[in-house]
Amino acid sequence: MDDLIRRIAALKKEKNALILAHTYTRAEVQDIADVVGDSFELAVRAADTTAAVIVLAGVRFMGETAAILAPDKKVLLPVADAGCPLADMINPDQLQRLKAAYPSAAVACYVNSSVEVKALSDVCVTSSSAVRIVRNLPQKQILFVPDQNLGSWVAEQVPEKEIILHSGFCPVHHKIQPEDVADARKLFPGAVVLMHPECTKETRREADHILSTGGMVALVKEKKHQRYIVVTESGITHTLQRHDPAAEFIDISNPAMYCRNMKKITLETILRSLDEEETLVTVGDDIAEKARGALVRMLELNR
Ligand code: 13P
Ligand code: SF4
Predict the structure, then answer these.
(1) Are the C-beta atoms of residues 128 and 197 closer than 8 Å to each other?
(2) Would 188 be classed as within a structural domain?
(3) 27 assigned to some structural domain
(4) What distance in angstroms lies between residue 37's CA and the mean position of ligand 1's atoms?
């Protein structure tokens, strides 16, 4: 492992590369990254970097987002087939049909989506920015795609808008039941329950705080609590523990809270990616231009 880490560091320096890792990646991947963050932070850091190469230790839509926001950089995905099943739950034809059915609605598309779907959308959102962005949109009617759970969370927070939901869901978060959380509370009394908005409405009722992964990090950094039950992908407990080593983080005891796509990224795949400059993320100019509009609007409206 030490040898791998040394070789990654040497190649990183030689190629002027930046490693951006999502909080759901493996602990050893997070430990060698320059930035560990939620999908919003990774997008912002990709847009801002002066590095020549960006290694996006995350799933495909994160690499595509970085490539669109940083068109003059080489964006590398360590694992080409690390996808996000939620992103595949709407295709451009389905979105076109929805747009035809609701012609005056603004389309807000979760960043967990394909480039083609982004290109048909008015604005992208992430879990940390969705509420603020939807609130700031001038339209009253909003088509929210593809995640029904994040969409229903936004609808609860922004009751003045009429939110039309699509049927997509994250297989990792959607399976968690309210009883799973209630059982964990009984086992760990006094623990504060942090939950991602991709969980269902029923399960969200069991939470103390509904937060994006970045929001969880921000809350834990305040060091106000000693014990947390964490209801999102298991990789984040490593991130949280680094920010408050004295606190206890309890992974909800459900094997479903494991994103096998995020876990495909290893130190070996990062080394190979840097060495061979594979897999280069490329997005056609026309489609990138259209998708960039929705992504730039996301950055602007999240102020
Ligand atoms: P965040 O926006 O919290 O990083 O979540 C991304 C994701 O894929 C959640 O499953
Ligand atoms: Fe996609 Fe869910 Fe994995 Fe996030 S946790 S990348 S939404 S499958």
Answers:
(1) no
(2) yes
(3) yes
(4) 9
Domain count, the chain: 3
pLDDT at 302: 83
What pLDDT does 293 receive?
97
Mark whether 20 and 160 lie in a shared domain.
Answer: no
- 271 CA to centre of ligand 2 in angstroms: 24
pLDDT at residue 226, rounded to an integer: 97
Structure tokens at 273: 């990616």
112 CB under 6 A from ligand 2? yes
Q: Counting ligands in written order, which one lies closest to the CA of residue 168?
A: 2
Report whether 261 contacts 92 (CB < 8 A). Answer: no
What ligand 2 atom has the least distance to the C-alpha of 259?
3
Q: What angle do CA 61, 66, 69 make, to 5 degrees?
A: 120
Q: Is 151 contained in some domain? A: yes
**pLDDT averaged over 10-residue windows placed end to end, the chain, 303 residues:** 94 98 97 95 94 98 96 97 98 98 98 97 96 96 98 98 98 94 94 97 98 96 97 94 96 79 98 97 96 95 81
Tell which one of 112, 176, 200 to mutate to probe ligand 2, the residue whose CB is within 8 A of the most ligand atoms. Answer: 112
Q: Does residue 132 sit in the same domain as residue 155? A: yes
Give SS3 for 277: coil
Same domain, 166 and 293: yes
* Owner of token pair 């002066």: 50
Ligand lying closest to the C-alpha of residue 58: 2
Q: Is the CB of 39 under 6 A from ligand 1?
A: yes
Q: Is the pTM of this model over 0.85?
A: yes
